[in-house]
């Protein structure tokens, strides 16, 4: 757009002038506009008042400049903010400003219309820009000048804001206020005299606030009355010491108030232009044209002029729809038969009309893009291009010249810049969230707008594409411009001062472009920099395409950019572009080999000029592949590719990878480089055979390539293999053979500083590798099969990872790395029989992968005398027999591990502890399968050397814990043959050991009647426990004694009979101030007994519990454990102890209770003596109602109904005799004991020989009683 007048194309905004805030270089600015008679006849406004210098002046100015939208995008979305629906152009001036004159100067002999004469027609003065003024550049038949837009955009504001200071000095306030009134009235008079409708606004900045100076209101009122300014929209007051936020709010409020005034100002101008257009008559010029052939502008030209003005004024009001309609009318009128068609192509008015047509078309495009009519904008762009081509072909100098191509390029560039300035959301890169997916990427083109029916098929060129598309079109036309410029004959390229053939001056279209002598001058003159124009256009195109990720177009454009740099001789700049392009272009992967070749040769040429040897070798290596078309008259010799290049100063080292370049050693069509293992599985210690097939697909006729070495890298337990070049003898040469099987013998080697390793074959110091020597000379089309075998040393999965082809020449080193596909199943195995090579498919999916199994161990492990079942709290002794069935003598050690999910670890120990050898690190991977379990291991036990068929027995033991668990016993023998110390071998035996508890028990805790007498209430003081002399408490238990019985029923969960030696009931803890003694109820059962599987045995324990103090009423608790001492039923079995938990026992001692006891009569066998003992451990006298209920099952003698009083701390026994009527059954006597005071029924507790249920006690009656 730079070649067009800026005011023709700029987006018009209401002009607001700020006067008095800052100074400006007004004279230089006015001189740059070149407006006629501006200095001579302009309306000058000046003031003697100083500029505003208050502290708020600079911040206020910055706030005003923030509103300036001169450089804002041409989009309606950026104009919707806090200041209103439109934006403004803010211009800062000092105290002096000049407005353009309204009328031109009168010509000589001018006769005003007010004094007509009979001899002449009355005439009047017109605007200096009007075609009716003789001094105007448009006189007499010009249509429009950009100076009219300059007048309203830069010189004539819609609002003139003047800033003044309201002084705070009381002595000078009256004088300054009078000066202020005079100044404002003078400015208003100047505006009134000039007939301009610019709105005048005064902003008064006070030095003090109203609180500090109360007379400010009165002074402001006087100013308003004297000046007649409306305080609503013409006079504003700004107090001092405002914050930036308050200043910004003031500015926004001011512009919101001025917005309707600005719109009304430009609407009045539109009404004035519309009235003049509707008159339908041409005004008389100030003076008639002097030339005989000159004529004034026709009515159709005046209509074009008025429509253009209306469009610009509508754009000032931001009414883009109305502006577009006016510009459409101006465009059609301009290119109609009555205006453009009537202008001669040799006339300067022709180019002026073309310039105006382009400007109107650009403004139409801006209006369409402003309103989102993208498809209409694309159509309009093409319509204007086609219409102008038709016009210049019919009436101009044709479209086959460099001038037309320059215009085509410029027109496409304008469209791209319009799209950029419009910032359409669909093309806006800034709207894409960071890290968004590809589906959210900016669009390449805009879909049709809603005005087009859904489903209508539109050509793709009618859809609006992103700016890069239009920049690319401009680049194409720049190429054509250069071609046509270079075709200009020498006689037309001569400077203007030199003679040229007549009649050729007007055959070139020079619209907005230079003459042929400047476009493409004869040397040594400098003309148009076509390469610079093309390079800049390509760069702008690339930026747009890169933002949208269009990879293929970007690569094509970068190639064009590099070729243009090469054409200009900028080899370094071209190489900077080609380096990343050659490495990462997509054409290589997609098979566009012709383009790959073009990039390769260009990269090589640039690198040769710059001296970049690395980028000479890389393309040379790639271009040797026969998949590219051979270059005529080019000698393919990789070893000599740097010979003669004096620009290469140092020896380069290049590393190439198969994914980055095409090579004559890769698997790219039609060549191959494959690797295969002969077997899918093998064992440690075996020789594993493998083959590497290398095929050279170099260009036919190229010289042989001699590699220095081939390196094979593996993942797993295989060593790196180096195949190094050795020059063969004449008899062993394979130059004439296209396929050759080569057997290579490998040997171990350790790298050293003087090892002949190339740059790409660095190896870890001290780590051995395998090396073999063979002929590595490859002729074009030749394939070699390298067959070799390597000893396997480590178990595990292994695969071939990559192969590196290294070439060490005199001037360079190059490594080519080829990574193998792990899932490659195309590998074959080659064999040779009597000179004939045959191949055989291996028939497996992954031929480059081998599974190395550990060497099969022949050492045998057996466990002797292992128990069927392991119990908790048991010491287990394990005898392990190790038998050497290897063919040679071995040296071994035994490791024992117990794995399981346990909290308390079992303890392990050898019967004879020996020093543990270091753990073999190579076998630690076998533990990974059990890494989630807890592991308890013994140190390695040295077995020592074992001759073949020798055996040894090793013994260890461990103690199981008291918690049941599933153990895993792992026995592992680590050994190696004395004949092969580098190959560790292991033999593992795993045994599952479920550990169970041998016993389980449940418990019954019941009371008994204590045989001791209770203390008497009448001598209670004698039984109170005396204290020690030191006051530390009782020495002996003197409280109430109770007897309880704990019955433990033990069940055997063993799978075999066990011997229970004894059962104990140890006391773990006593709480509640009591003493407790425990004894077996039946001493006979306390002896050893045999318990069979699932059998239940009982053990009864009598507990004597006595309080330390008679006054202690607390309940007591007992913590006990059941200890079962048992052993297996075999000789010499160790005694084990299993401890079972007993629930905490509660012993109440503060409540009364009733105990029932029975015994059979010694005199009458069927008579049962039933006693009920009522205990009162309290300090209260208790009265009970006792009722014995009758029953059909027995007869009884004793009190049926009675009342009993029991003294504190005493007990009483009630005797009953029962005569049962049944035999061999349980009878249920019901004694009801009720506390008379508390009305509480006491529960009767059964003692030995009795039972209880929900209803009461039960007494057994023998069948033979």
UniProtKB/TrEMBL annotation:
PANTHER family: FOIE GRAS, TRAFFICKING PROTEIN PARTICLE COMPLEX SUBUNIT 11. The lineage of its organism: Eukaryota, Fungi, Dikarya, Ascomycota, Pezizomycotina. This is Trafficking protein particle complex subunit 11. It comes from Glutinoglossum americanum. Residues 349-625 form the Trafficking protein particle complex subunit domain. It holds the Pfam family Foie-gras_1. Residues 111-129 have a biased composition (Low complexity). Transmembrane segments: none annotated. Residues 103-129 are annotated as: Disordered. Residues 668-1262 form the Gryzun putative trafficking through Golgi domain.
């Amino acid at each position: 757009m730079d070649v067009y007048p800026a005011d023709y194309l700029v987006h018009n905004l209401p002009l607001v002038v700020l006067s008095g805030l800052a100074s400006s270089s007004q004279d230089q600015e006015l001189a740059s506009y070149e407006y006629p008679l501006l200095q001579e006849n302009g309306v000058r406004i000046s003031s003697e008042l100083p500029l505003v210098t208050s502290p708020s002046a600079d911040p206020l100015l910055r706030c005003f400049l923030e509103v300036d939208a001169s450089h804002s995008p041409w989009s309606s979305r950026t104009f919707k903010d806090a200041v209103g629906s439109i934006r403004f152009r803010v211009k800062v001036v000092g105290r002096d400003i000049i407005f353009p004159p309204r009328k031109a100067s009168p010509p000589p002999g001018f006769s005003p219309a007010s004094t007509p004469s009979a001899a002449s027609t009355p005439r009047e003065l017109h605007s200096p820009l009007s075609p009716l003024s003789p001094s105007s550049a448009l006189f007499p038949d010009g249509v429009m000048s950009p100076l009219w837009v300059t007048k309203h955009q830069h010189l004539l504001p819609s609002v003139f804001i003047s800033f003044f200071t309201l002084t705070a000095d009381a002595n000078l306030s009256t004088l300054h206020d009078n000066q202020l009134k005079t100044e404002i009235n003078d400015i208003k008079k100047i505006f009134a005299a000039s007939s301009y409708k610019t709105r005048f606004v005064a902003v008064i900045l006070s030095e003090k606030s109203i609180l500090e100076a109360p007379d400010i209101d009165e002074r402001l009122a006087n100013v308003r009355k004297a000046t007649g300014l409306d305080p609503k929209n013409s006079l504003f007051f700004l107090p001092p010491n405002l914050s930036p936020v308050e200043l910004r709010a003031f500015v926004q409020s001011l512009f919101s108030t001025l917005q309707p005034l600005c719109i009304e100002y430009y609407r009045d101008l539109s009404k004035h232009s519309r009235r003049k257009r509707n008159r339908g008559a041409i005004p008389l010029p100030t003076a008639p044209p002097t030339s005989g052939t000159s004529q004034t502008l026709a009515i159709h030209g005046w209509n074009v002029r008025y429509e253009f003005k209306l469009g610009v004024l509508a754009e000032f009001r931001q009414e883009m729809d109305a502006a577009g309609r006016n510009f459409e009318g101006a465009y059609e009128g301009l290119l109609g038969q009555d205006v453009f068609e009537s202008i001669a192509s040799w006339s300067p008015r022709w180019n002026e009309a073309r310039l105006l047509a382009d400007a109107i078309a650009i403004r139409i495009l801006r209006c369409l893009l402003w309103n989102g009519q993208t498809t209409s904008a694309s159509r309009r762009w093409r319509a204007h291009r086609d219409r102008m081509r038709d016009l210049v072909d019919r009436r101009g100098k044709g479209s086959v010249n460099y001038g037309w191509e320059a215009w085509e390029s410029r027109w496409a560039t304008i469209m791209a810049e319009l799209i950029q300035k419009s910032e359409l959301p669909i093309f806006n890169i800034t709207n894409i969230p960071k890290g968004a997916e590809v589906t959210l990427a900016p669009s390449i083109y805009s879909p049709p707008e809603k005005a087009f029916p859904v489903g209508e098929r539109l050509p793709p060129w009618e859809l609006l594409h992103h700016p890069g598309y239009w920049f690319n079109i401009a680049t194409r036309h720049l190429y054509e411009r250069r071609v046509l410029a270079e075709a200009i004959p020498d006689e037309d390229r001569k400077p203007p001062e030199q003679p040229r053939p007549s009649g050729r001056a007007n055959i070139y279209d020079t619209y907005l472009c230079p003459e042929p002598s400047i476009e493409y001058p004869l040397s040594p003159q400098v003309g148009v920099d076509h390469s610079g124009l093309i390079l800049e256009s390509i760069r702008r195109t690339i930026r747009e395409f890169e933002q949208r990720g269009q990879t293929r177009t970007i690569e094509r454009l970068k190639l064009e950019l590099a070729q243009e740099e090469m054409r200009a001789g900028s080899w370094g700049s071209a190489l900077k572009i080609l380096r990343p392009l050659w490495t990462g272009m997509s054409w290589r992967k997609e098979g566009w080999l012709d383009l790959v070749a073009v990039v390769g040769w260009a990269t090589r040429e640039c690198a040769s000029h710059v001296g970049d040897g690395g980028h000479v070798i890389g393309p040379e290596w790639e271009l040797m592949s026969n998949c590219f078309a051979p270059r005529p008259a080019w000698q393919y010799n990789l070893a000599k590719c740097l010979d003669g290049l004096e620009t290469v100063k140092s020896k380069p080292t290049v590393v190439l990878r198969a994914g980055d370049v095409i090579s004559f050693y890769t698997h790219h069509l039609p060549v191959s480089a494959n690797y295969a293992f002969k077997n899918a599985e093998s064992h440690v210690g075996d020789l594993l055979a493998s083959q590497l097939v290398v095929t050279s697909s170099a260009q036919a006729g190229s010289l042989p390539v001699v590699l220095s070495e081939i390196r094979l890298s593996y993942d797993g337990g295989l060593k790196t293999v180096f195949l190094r070049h050795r020059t063969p003898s004449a008899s062993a040469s394979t130059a004439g053979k296209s396929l050759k099987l080569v057997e290579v013998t490998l040997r171990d080697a350790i790298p050293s500083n003087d090892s002949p390793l190339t740059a790409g074959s660095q190896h870890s110091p001290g780590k051995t590798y395998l090396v073999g020597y063979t002929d590595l000379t490859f002729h074009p089309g030749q394939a070699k099969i390298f067959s070799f075998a390597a000893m396997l040393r480590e178990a595990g999965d292994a695969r071939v990872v990559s192969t590196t082809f290294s070439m060490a020449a005199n001037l360079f080193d190059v490594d080519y790395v080829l990574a193998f596909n792990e899932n490659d199943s195309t590998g074959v195995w080659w064999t040779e029989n009597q000179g004939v090579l045959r191949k055989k498919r291996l028939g497996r999916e992954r031929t480059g992968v081998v599974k190395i199994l550990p060497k099969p161990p022949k050492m045998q492990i057996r466990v002797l005398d292992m128990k069927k079942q392991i119990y908790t709290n048991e010491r287990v002794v394990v005898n392990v027999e190790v038998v050497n069935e290897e063919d040679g003598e071995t040296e071994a050690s035994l490791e024992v591990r117990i794995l399981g999910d346990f909290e308390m670890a079992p303890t392990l120990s050898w019967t004879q502890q020996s020093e543990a050898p270091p753990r073999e690190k190579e076998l630690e991977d076998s533990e990974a399968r059990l890494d989630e379990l807890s592991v308890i291991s013994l140190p390695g036990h040295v077995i020592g050397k074992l001759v073949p068929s020798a055996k040894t027995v090793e013994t260890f033991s461990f103690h199981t814990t008291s918690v049941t668990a599933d153990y895993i016993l792992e026995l592992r023998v680590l050994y190696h043959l004395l004949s092969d110390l580098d190959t560790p071998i292991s033999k593992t035996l795993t045994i599952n050991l479920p550990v169970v508890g041998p016993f389980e028990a449940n418990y019954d805790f019941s009371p008994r009647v204590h045989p001791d007498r209770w203390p008497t209430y009448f001598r209670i003081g004698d039984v109170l426990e005396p204290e020690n002399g030191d006051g530390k408490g009782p020495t002996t238990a003197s409280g109430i004694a109770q007897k309880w019985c704990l019955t433990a029923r033990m069940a055997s969960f063993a799978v075999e009979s066990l011997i229970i030696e004894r059962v104990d009931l140890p006391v773990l803890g006593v709480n509640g101030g009591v003493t407790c003694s425990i004894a077996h109820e039946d001493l006979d059962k306390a002896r050893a007994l045999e318990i069979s599987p699932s059998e239940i045995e009982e053990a009864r324990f009598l507990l004597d519990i006595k309080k330390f103090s008679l006054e202690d009423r607390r309940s007591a608790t007992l913590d006990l454990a059941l200890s079962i001492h048992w052993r297996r039923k075999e000789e010499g079995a160790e005694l084990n102890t299993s401890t079972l938990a007993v629930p905490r026992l509660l012993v109440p001692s503060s409540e009364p209770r009733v105990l029932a006891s029975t015994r059979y009569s010694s005199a009458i066998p069927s008579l049962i003596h039933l006693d009920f003992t009522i205990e009162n451990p309290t300090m209260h006298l208790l009265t009970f109602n006792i009722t014995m209920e009758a029953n059909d099952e027995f007869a009884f003698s004793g009190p049926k109904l009675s009342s009993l009083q029991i003294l504190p701390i005493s007990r009483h026994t009630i005797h009953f005799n029962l005569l049962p009527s049944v035999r061999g059954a349980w009878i249920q006597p019901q004694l009801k004991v009720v506390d008379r005071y508390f009305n509480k029924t006491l529960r009767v507790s059964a003692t030995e020989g009795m039972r209880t249920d929900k209803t009461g006690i039960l007494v057994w009656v023998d069948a033979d009683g």
